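Everyone, carefully examine this protein record:
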Amino acid sequence: MPTFIEILPATKTSKNWGITFIKPEGIEAVCGKLVIESRGTHVEYRLTEFSCGWDGRAFYLTKLTEGTDSESESYDCFVARNGQDKRCDCKGFIYGKGRPCKHLESIAALLANGWI
């Protein structure tokens, strides 16, 4: 299984953070396992793409390990084809008034690198 690692640019809330992406071979529905490390946390997700009917790509991020939000088990994320319009149903995106969250920034990095 190919493994990809990237250190992402510092944000207001995370000075040092990065992602690890493990892509399984031969499984079409599951894009892979995404690990997001930020602010001393290490959270693993199963990343699954789904059809949404909008002009872009949509993903489910299902937690495999405990994260910072104990109330949510998964997140729905959308990245528009124009690369600017993004949505996530996590608290960081909602309370950040539309600023990209770590989930969206991670998916954008996966797309930019051609990993998914």
